[in-house]
Amino acid sequence: MGELLLITDDTHRGRRLSRDLGTRRPCHVHDLYDDALPTIGPTLIVSDVEALTSEAIVRLRRTLAQVRGEDVPYLFLVHGNAARSEAQARVLGATATAGVQQMLAAVERLQGASIPILARTRSAEARQFFQLALFSGQPITPAVADAGTELVVRAVSDTGIYDWVRAVQQFDDATHQHCLLVAALAAAFSGALGLRPTDRHRLTQAALLHDVGKIHVPIEILNKPGQLTHSEMAIMRTHAERGHTMLVGAGFDDGLLGRGLIQVHAITQETSATAAR
Description:
GO terms for molecular function: phosphoric diester hydrolase activity. The chain is of the alpha/beta class.
């Protein structure tokens, strides 16, 4: 996944936008009025210029001429007068225009919502392992869990967390999707923190196994599209205890497993809060 270049006439606003864009790919913010041109070779360019003065247009044109490579998509964010902005965007050769509120959806479309083959392959391998080894009803041994954990860690290292998430989100089974997403987030988060390989492995494994008790929950409850009834919710809530019993009975270290699950809970809470900001 290449770097995104955000050209702005307000660096404070640009940094706010970059926080949203940066959750999907690396994002570099460039001040339109900085005479030094960006040194990166972006694979996507977004311009966030509210005051479309003659000088701003000249500077934007100069920056684009220097850094926009062949076939690099360019998204022009519209501020104020939409008709005037659309005209300016056409003059500048923008691939597409969008309001700030529609920015993320427009970026998704422009970057080719195509998911790299490697990410599709790795996620399919992980899903197959998950189905056959963890949700097949067969005993889950530490050796089996170790193999699945290494598969996820290698996949995230090979594809990057962004493409992994996009690939896994294509799965139609909510439980498989959720467990593989949480495991990958744990692997990426622990890697970014610089944890030791053994600690990263333990955390990713706890994330991979945290919902394994759902094998005892009927599929019609797991995949029910609407709200669960009180009785269905009571059945659903048994999965944590049953999963813990399964794993301890299979030989997993109760103390290590418990600490790992506490850390997984903290990570999922933090990522949910980050996504909401």
